[in-house]
């Protein structure tokens, strides 16, 4: 049964701690007849991957490797494309896929393929927002996290379908597929791959002393069953059957070793007797030593000779294979030539040809062969020209993208991009460049001439009209300020007249007070009326003073407002003038650049 995901693979360039000392009893190989592991040495049930670092994907501080794969070779690229398409087809890729799409995919198609592959590693079917919004930033980080030994630049991802960038990214995708296939194959039996090595007893396989041993699997099963029985309620003295089963498993595994030990003991005794007999005869021992030296020398010579014969045999086999392939090809060519000869013979037998016709046909054949050779040369020449033009085309596209990015950055500084910007007024001034478009009306130049340039001209006209309106408003404000100044002067004259009148009234009041003081006893009613009149006059004077202060404050506020408006209008006028000059300069430079690029093609 195939697993759908691998879970989260922890195989990147991360800090891993290699556990050299196994503190659990799983790593201690129990002796056959000796002591049992103590209860303090319980087997840890934690994830064993923490003590088994992966050595396949490099180390943390390794130097940058050089990619030795022939990524620029067309045949190798087709092989990688078929490998990628086979994987996507086998695993039910949900989007449309074909060899043509995989030859030069768009950014959207590449993101769909990468997310489909990445879900087998991450194990999360939901799409990542950061991966969707900024794939050129996130994808290199993911490859670096997974331990991809080669670098992937951001510029390659921005022009993913170009001839110089796609082979690099295609090689990274094939590496990712190999990683996924490895994870899927390991995931079928993770316990056998991670915890315990394969039991190759008798095959000459050696295991590390500080690593897991094949018999640890028996001990792990013994602990598992015993612990489960203990948790189920059995007592410790009732677990003897598990001890017997464990001992029986160890004995059955080592039965052949025990039998072999008895044979080795007997053979050792025989060899010791022969050794004693040989040691007693010193002259024979010396002869045998010399013979041994001679045999060792002959053995080395024979080994070298056998090695040379093996190399020679391999060379002969390679030559034989090549000759066999050539012979098969020649046989096929012979059969084809014989068939063609028979067909031509039948045609010749059925036709009445003269010697002149035969000579003419031979001459035409030679001419046609020359024409075919010339056409093949022309085809190779045109293929080379097409390749050079494609590279030049890709370079020009990169330059065009660079200038369009500079234009968009300048428009963003001038608050023209995005459409919600202050000066955009809902219009999209951003230039969009689609190098893979086959329609001329979708190019950047047509878009600029048809939409952006008229919009910029309208914006310049609006700014000019607004500037004239602001100037007119400034003139109006200045006239209003002059009128207010005249009104203030008139009010000041009125206030001075009222002050003179007030002084006169004060003198009259004093005089009338004196008269009224003398005549108070006689006409108290008249005095009360005069007092009321005086109060009214004082109230009028106070009102005049308050009106004068209010008019002074209003005059001061109007002056400050007029000065502020004047400064603001001057600043806006200078900003609009600078903006218009910069925009015109950028448009002029971009127009010249586009015309130069158009003339090149």
From TrEMBL:
- Its predominant location is nucleus
Compositional bias per record (Polar residues), positions renumbered to this chain: 47-58
Indicate the segments annotated as coiled coil, or none if absent.
Answer: 261-385, 481-572
Instruction: Give the UniProt subcellular location, in the record's own words.
Output: Chromosome, Centromere, Kinetochore; Nucleus
Lineage: superkingdom: Eukaryota
Q: Could you name the Gene Ontology cellular component terms for this entry?
A: Ndc80 complex; nucleus
Q: Does the keyword Coiled coil apply?
A: yes
InterPro entries in the cross-refs: Kinetochore_Ndc80, Ndc80_CH, NDC80_loop, Ndc80_sf
Which residue intervals define the domain Kinetochore protein NDC80 loop region in the entry?
369-554
- Which intervals carry biased composition (Low complexity)? 27-42
GO biological process: any one?
cell division
Domain Kinetochore protein Ndc80 CH, first and last residues per copy? 42-181
Q: Does the keyword Coiled coil apply?
A: yes
Region annotated Disordered, chain positions: 21-71
Question: Which PANTHER family would you find in this protein's record?
Answer: KINETOCHORE PROTEIN NDC80 (PTHR10643), KINETOCHORE PROTEIN NDC80 HOMOLOG (PTHR10643:SF2)
- Record-stated family: Belongs to the NDC80/HEC1 family.
The job of this chain, per UniProt, is described as: Acts as a component of the essential kinetochore-associated NDC80 complex, which is required for chromosome segregation and spindle checkpoint activity.
What do we know about how this protein assembles, alone or with others? Component of the NDC80 complex.
> What's the name of the protein?
Kinetochore protein NDC80
**Species:** Acropora cervicornis
């Amino acid at each position: 049964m195939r697993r759908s995901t691998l879970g989260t693979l922890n195989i990147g360039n991360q800090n891993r701690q290699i556990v050299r000392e196994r503190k659990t009893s799983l790593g201690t190989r129990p002796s056959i007849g000796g002591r049992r592991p103590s209860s303090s040495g319980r087997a840890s049930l934690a994830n064993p991957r923490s003590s088994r670092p992966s050595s396949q994907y490099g180390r943390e501080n390794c130097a940058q490797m050089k990619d030795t794969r022939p990524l620029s070779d067309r045949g190798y690229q087709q092989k990688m494309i078929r490998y990628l398409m086979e994987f996507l087809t086998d695993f039910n890729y949900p989007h449309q896929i074909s060899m043509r799409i995989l030859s030069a995919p768009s950014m959207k198609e590449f993101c769909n393929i990468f997310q489909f592959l990445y879900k087998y590693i991450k194990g999360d079917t939901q799409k990542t927002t950061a991966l969707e919004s900024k794939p050129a930033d996130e994808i290199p980080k993911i490859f670096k996290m997974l331990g991809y030994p080669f670098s992937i630049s951001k510029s390659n991802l921005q022009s993913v379908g170009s001839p110089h960038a796609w082979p690099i990214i295609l090689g990274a995708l094939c590496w990712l597929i190999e990683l996924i296939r490895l994870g899927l194959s390991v995931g079928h039996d993770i316990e056998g791959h991670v915890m315990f090595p394969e039991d190759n007893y008798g095959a000459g396989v050696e295991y590390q002393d500080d690593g897991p041993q094949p018999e640890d699997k028996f001990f792990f099963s013994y602990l598992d069953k015993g612990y489960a029985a203990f948790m189920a309620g059995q007592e410790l003295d009732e677990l003897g059957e598990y001890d017997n089963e464990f001992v029986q498993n160890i004995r059955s595994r080592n039965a052949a070793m025990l039998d072999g030990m008895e044979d080795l003991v007997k053979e050792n005794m025989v060899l010791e007797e022969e050794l004693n007999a040989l040691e007693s005869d010193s002259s024979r021992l010396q002869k045998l030593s010399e013979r041994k030296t001679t045999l060792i020398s002959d053995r080395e010579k024979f080994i070298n000779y056998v090695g040379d014969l093996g190399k020679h045999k391999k060379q002969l086999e390679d030559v034989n294979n090549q000759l066999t392939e050539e012979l098969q090809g020649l046989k096929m060519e012979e059969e084809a030539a014989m068939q063609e000869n028979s067909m031509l013979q039948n045609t010749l037998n059925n036709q009445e040809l003269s010697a002149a016709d035969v000579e003419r046909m031979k001459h035409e054949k030679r001419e046609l062969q020359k024409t075919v050779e010339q056409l093949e040369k022309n085809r190779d020449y045109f293929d080379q020209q097409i390749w050079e033009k494609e590279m030049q085309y890709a370079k020009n596209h990169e330059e065009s993208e660079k200038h369009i990015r500079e234009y968009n950055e300048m428009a963003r500084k001038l608050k023209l991009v995005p459409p919600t910007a202050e000066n955009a007024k809902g219009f999209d001034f951003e230039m969009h460049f689609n190098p893979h478009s086959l329609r001329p009306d979708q190019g950047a130049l047509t878009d600029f001439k048809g939409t952006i340039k008229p919009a910029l001209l309208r914006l310049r006209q609006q700014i000019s009209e607004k500037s004239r309106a602001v100037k007119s408003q400034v003139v109006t404000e200045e006239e209003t300020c002059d009128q207010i100044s005249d009104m203030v002067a008139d009010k000041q004259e009125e206030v001075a007249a009222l002050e003179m009148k007030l002084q006169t009234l004060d003198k009259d009041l004093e005089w009338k007070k004196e008269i009224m003081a003398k005549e108070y006893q006689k006409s108290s009613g008249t005095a009360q009326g005069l007092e009321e009149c005086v109060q009214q006059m004082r109230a009028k004077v106070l009102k005049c003073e308050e009106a004068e202060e209010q008019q002074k404050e209003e005059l001061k506020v109007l002056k400050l407002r007029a000065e502020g408006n004047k400064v603001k209008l001057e600043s806006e006028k200078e900003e609009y003038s600078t903006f218009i000059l910069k925009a015109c300069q950028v448009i002029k430079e971009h127009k010249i650049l586009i015309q130069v690029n158009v003339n090149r093609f």
